[in-house]
Write a structure and sequence with these properties.
599 residues; four-stranded antiparallel β-sheet
């Protein structure tokens, strides 16, 4: 998910490109995820040093720096997130002197020594990399932040636990009921903890709100930059990072919520026409918010038409919600059968009773597979799933996204995303929209998995361990499917895990993870009551407000500020965590005021 697409592109350009600015000396000012490399040549002829990132799949080598006839040296700034493979060749000629891979570390100073050997010059050239200045510990800010958050979590849990009382122990009664030591406000708070534990609990799934809030806060954190760490940004093409997990979780939650909400409305006697009005209104409002927000820029006015883009995150979520809601509105199975009517096929009734929906979903997936792998794309191989550019040995530079991008350009023209995550690493020139048309098909499939979780909740009500077993089965089945399709590799599978394409393996992998996370939260929050979902439950119950609010205000003070120290991750990580914490606090205040923005 992106708040400022252009801003994220420039950040990613800095963090993932192997070549940066040439440095005149060893005192070059380095920023986050940068190191200084000095090439020391003792060769009699001029050299060319090229590079490729090991994260870039079958990418062509790109020029890094040239060195005049030796002895001589030139310094250059290189990126540190991914391992770089360096190749040293004559400036004029096709032979290779040497090739070596190295993972440079932030703020380190390195020297690449190129020395001639004895005898045959080409076969005896020696290349080595030495460390001249120790690098920063890139992950120390993360470790400190994790320890601080862990300490806050312990305090959050322990303080209420120590103050909790049942009014049965004399010591606790003394703490709970001594009016001379506590104010009226404190007594009321204690009274709430001393209520009869046998009172009926709310039927609302706190774990679902907690899951939604957790997903939302991860999304806010990565949208604020994620501390500048590459694994909190979207993957360049294939593979998964933390940022790639968030939107599928949201879609899964939408499916679960639709199933539970529509079941509740039917029990209340809401007619099909009323359901149609409600889902249509909500879809239109979400799409309008998404369209206006994605094209908003303070510098260009309310609607920055120069950056007009039709697809977007909220637009996709709205369409997914609309499709899933229509499926439920016209579903032939409108009531959950009583347990006494369960027959031999009872263990799979949540699947068999909704067979028309399964047929529809299977047809959608067949459509995605056929268009993706059978649609002819001009000047591109049929079924191409790569990033194009310099990837795949540079054979398909203008084929970024294959059929998915071709369909988007055919339907939407140029009103799509021109700065995809693969642009910096793969040097692509074609637009590609991660919220495009074909990916929306698999978004519906992902939401359907969430609906399946809702059906499990409904069909196995009050059978908690049966629910957990069903969740585990679905997680295993989808996990095996993802493993088979991807061959447990990043780039070599039949269908690689790819968030940009919303590939089938990506949907299966995220579906498996969603069942696991929701199952764990359901066990901890709703079954055992070990955790109340705080603080994630607060933004989870006000997700639209927090999402739109952080998107519009996130890059203004006090949520963020212009950084003064850009040579390490310390300030950037603090800024990302600070902005996220403020939105949690705002959501908590709204929760206390019982204000919930609903559409």
């Amino acid at each position: 998910m992106k708040v400022s697409s252009l801003r994220h592109f420039f950040l990613f350009l800095i963090f993932t490109t192997g070549q940066c600015d040439a440095a005149s000396d060893s005192d070059a000012v380095l920023k986050m995820d940068e190191a200084l490399l000095t090439v020391q040549s003792q060769m009699p002829g001029s050299l060319l040093v090229t590079y490729t990132s090991d994260y870039c799949y079958k990418c062509l080598y790109q020029p890094l720096v040239s060195v005049d006839a030796g002895p001589g040296n030139v310094s250059v700034v290189v990126s540190t997130p991914f391992t770089l493979t360096l190749k040293v060749t004559p400036l004029k000629g096709s032979s290779t002197y040497c090739s070596l891979s190295h993972l440079f570390q932030e703020a380190g100073h390195y020297t690449l020594w190129v020395k001639p050997g004895v005898g045959d010059l080409k076969s005896n050239v020696t290349c080595s990399i030495s460390l001249e200045k120790d690098p920063n510990n890139t992950y120390l800010p993360l470790l400190v932040a994790a320890l601080v958050l862990a300490l806050l979590a312990v305090l959050w849990v322990s303080v209420p636990f120590l103050s909790r009382c049942s009014c049965t122990s004399k010591l606790r009664k003394l703490i709970c009921c001594n009016e001379s030591r506590y104010s009226m406000e404190r007594e009321e708070a204690v009274g709430e903890t001393c209520v009869d534990q046998h009172q009926p609990k709310s039927s609302r799934l706190k774990s679902l709100d907690t899951f939604r809030g957790f997903s939302l806060m991860v999304m806010v954190f990565v949208n604020y930059g994620g501390g500048g760490y590459w694994f909190f940004e979207h993957a360049p093409w294939n593979g998964l990072t933390v940022a790639d997990l968030v939107m599928p979780w949201f879609v899964f939650i939408i499916g679960t919520s639709v199933m539970l909400a529509f079941s509740s409305m039917r029990r209340k006697g809401v007619t099909r026409l009323q359901l149609l009005r409600k889902l249509t209104w909500r879809t239109v409002v979400l799409m309008l918010i998404g369209f206006c927000f994605i094209n908003y820029s303070p510098r260009d006015g309310l609607l920055s038409w120069s950056w007009l883009r039709i697809p977007g995150v909220l637009q996709r979520l709205a369409f997914t919600y609309f499709t899933l809601s229509l499926m439920q509105t016209f579903s032939p199975c409108r009531e959950i059968p009583p347990k006494k009517e369960i027959r031999w096929w009872g263990p799979v009734q949540d699947v068999l009773l909704f067979w028309p929906e399964w047929i529809f979903i299977l047809l959608l997936e067949v459509l995605w597979l056929c268009v993706t792998f059978l649609l002819p794309v001009p000047n591109c191989p049929t079924g191409y799933l790569g990033a194009g550019g310099i990837g795949d040995n540079g054979l398909y530079p203008n084929c970024t996204g294959g059929a998915a991008a071709y369909v988007d350009r055919w339907l939407l023209g140029d009103n799509i995303y021109w700065h995809p995550t693969c642009k910096a690493l793969y040097h692509t020139t074609q637009p590609f929209d991660p919220e495009g048309v074909l990916g929306t098909i698999n978004s519906v499939v992902m939401g359907f998995f969430g609906m399946q979780a809702g059906k499990i909740f409904l069909f196995f009500r009050k059978m908690n361990y049966s629910i957990l077993i069903r969740f585990a089965v679905w997680a295993i089945v989808l996990g095996i499917l993802a493993a088979i399709l991807s061959k447990c590799t990043r780039d070599e599978g039949f269908i690689p895990v790819n968030k940009n394409l919303w590939s089938l393996s990506y949907v299966a992998c995220m579906g498996s993870m969603s069942f696991v996370l929701l199952g764990v939260m359901y066990f901890v929050v709703d079954i055992k009551g070990w955790w109340g979902g705080q603080p994630f439950i607060y933004p989870g119950m006000n997700s639209i407000f927090v999402y739109v609010g952080h998107s519009l205000l996130g890059f203004y003070f006090p949520f963020s500020w212009e950084m003064r120290f850009q040579d390490s991750h310390w300030e950037k990580l603090f800024q990302s965590l600070w902005g996220t914490a403020i939105w949690i606090f705002i959501a908590y205040l709204l929760y206390r005021k019982q204000f919930f923005l609903k559409i």
